[in-house]
Amino acid sequence: MKENLQFTALLDILSRQDLITEYSEDCKDITPSHITINSKDVVPGTFFVCKGASFKEDYLKSAIAQGAIVYLSQQKYDDVDIPYIIVNDIRKAMALAARWFFGNPGDNMTKVGITGTKGKTTVTFVMKDILDKYTDNRCSAFSTHEIDVGTKVFETTLTTPEPIELQTYFDMAVDEGCTHCIMEVSSQAMKMNRIYGEHYKVGVFTNIDYDHISPTEHASMEDYLGCKVSFLKQCDNVVLYSDTRYFETIYNEVRDKHVVVYGSKESIEKLMSRDDDFFEKDTDFASIHNEDLTDHNSYFELIYGGENRAYNTNLIGDYNVENIVAAIISSLLIGIPNDQIRSSIRDVYVPGRLQVYHWKDRTFMIDYAHNYISMYRLYEMVKKTMKPKSITVVFGCGGERYKKRREDMGRLAEQYADKVVLTMEDPGFESCEEICKEIKQYITKPCYIIVDREQALTRALDEAQPGELVITTGKGIESTQRINGTFVQCHSDAQVIEHWLTEHPEE
Ligand SMILES: CC(=O)N[C@H]1[C@@H](OP(=O)(O)OP(=O)(O)OC[C@H]2O[C@@H](n3ccc(=O)[nH]c3=O)[C@H](O)[C@@H]2O)O[C@H](CO)[C@@H](O)[C@@H]1O[C@H](C)C(=O)N[C@@H](C)C(=O)N[C@H](CCC(=O)O)C(=O)O
Ligand SMILES: Nc1ncnc2c1ncn2[C@@H]1O[C@H](COP(=O)(O)OP(=O)(O)OP(=O)(O)O)[C@@H](O)[C@H]1O
Ligand SMILES: N[C@H](CCC[C@H](N)C(=O)O)C(=O)O
């Protein structure tokens, strides 16, 4: 919270955006000391925001009983008697109110946002490493994995936090001296206006594929794409992957920005040889070539800005080279010297993504793939660069998510794996057993269902043969399962493998 908050300033911000339907005159004199969406988090002097599909009037009454002094809502509650602002879009109004309450802390950091069906967390961690070295650890980072405000790290359940939480962490980050911020921007964040009013120096678009279409996510692919693209409108520079689906549609939406298109040499050459004046004059291109990809290291060269730059990294896989290139270009765009970038990416750690363990000629791998695009690229990468004798894959599928993931991942397992163990992966309100059975329909290879994930993975490790690769996907290093509306603690895949390794010493 900032000193001298003027409620009239908030009314002004909201009315300039035509968001206000009605407000009580007495709200003008109010100076709140706290803002929240939750009646269980109210203290005297609270500014209470009423929002959400399951919101009840009783929450507001309870908030008032505990000292809430003003409310923001899309609906007027006649039974309560405190000052109010009624708006026509609570999500936008909430985002702007949260920004106002904390004094627009996000504006004090150079922000880079990453969107895409896949690659967001990886690009975020690569950039975090680069920016930490460049700023002497004054870079905040918001990812599916955690929220890092420079000196403190917090757990999170959402990829992009809800507005009040987001602004609270922005404020902390600025207080901790952060000058830069790197964050994943999910399509849901855009749909829910979580970052409404924020401005980004660079926006990365890694890719989009059929996913996240379900009753709790997006109604259609158009909605999903529209939400992702809308993020780029909040950015000065756009870093866009050349081989994404809907490339032309996306480019057309952002052609008024400075765009850098990145991708393989073949793909970039094809785009640059177009003779229809499709690209704006100030669009730049970055092409990856001379790749040398092994099972423990990647070398590649990047032609960008008239220079040929060579890089080495411990991250493996062609798609990780693409992720790193997105991070390199974004870093160059915010003024980080190439030498520093080059040395930062040599040794990068992305938790739970392609994390590899070796044991007596067997390889165990943890990864976060959980839909078509990621599973496909993971299997192809494994086939090309790791060349195992056989593959066992351990996975499941999240409940209340895009239904076709089950068929897609089942078919891919059938095509690439030799043995499949289906197990729990955030079933939500659905039955884990039923989800696994749906996936199993597409598999004729040896396949069994063990709902307990720890047991499933342990059995796969026990049965692994020399030359075999066991891949466990969809959870990374997460140590909770989303079940029936709560997060239940469990051992992470990493903990299960590490425990198994201590029980099975090589000698
Ligand atoms: C669709 C969406 O964004 N929903 C989010 C939203 O829910 P909502 O606004 O409908 O709120 P609600 O849960 O119905 O709650 C109603 C209100 O009553 C209040 N309440 C409740 C109980 C009480 O006693 N007192 C009280 O005041 C609550 O604080 C809340 O403000 O606000 C909630 C927090 O306030 C979020 O937890 C919730 O995320 C849901 C659970 C979620 O999981 N969303 C997923 C789909 C998501 O956003 N995923 C993306 C990643 C997807 C990707 O990978 O691309 C993400 O960014 O994480
Ligand atoms: N650029 C990419 N293209 C396709 N697949 C990728 C790419 N980058 C990573 N992957 C795969 O997707 C998985 C998840 O990667 P990452 O966590 O970086 O993506 P994300 O966009 O943050 O995913 P989520 O939305 O699920 O949090 C990885 O474990 C890997 O299997
Ligand atoms: N950020 C991703 C995480 C998915 C993890 C997976 N285990 C699942 O629950 O689908 C999402 O919300 O889709």
UniProtKB/TrEMBL annotation:
Gene Ontology molecular function terms on file:
UDP-N-acetylmuramoylalanyl-D-glutamate-2,6-diaminopimelate ligase activity
Any idea which UniProt keywords this protein has?
Cell cycle, Cell division, Cell shape, Cell wall biogenesis/degradation, Ligase, Peptidoglycan synthesis
Q: Where in the cell is it found?
A: Cytoplasm
* InterPro entries associated with the record: Mur-like_cat_sf, Mur_ligase_C, Mur_ligase_C_dom_sf, Mur_ligase_cen, MurE/MurF_N, UDP-N-AcMur-Glu-dNH2Pim_ligase
Note whether Cell wall biogenesis/degradation occurs among the keywords.
yes
Q: May I ask which residue range the UniProt record assigns to the signal sequence?
A: none
Ranges for domain Mur ligase central: 114-329
Name one matching Pfam family.
Answer: Mur_ligase_C
Domain Mur ligase C-terminal: where? 352-476
The top EC class is ligase
The biological pathway it contributes to is: Cell wall biogenesis; peptidoglycan biosynthesis
> What's the Enzyme Commission number for this chain?
6.3.2.13
Q: Does the keyword Cell wall biogenesis/degradation apply?
A: yes
Q: Which family does it belong to?
A: Belongs to the MurCDEF family. MurE subfamily.
Entry protein name: UDP-N-acetylmuramoyl-L-alanyl-D-glutamate--2, 6-diaminopimelate ligase
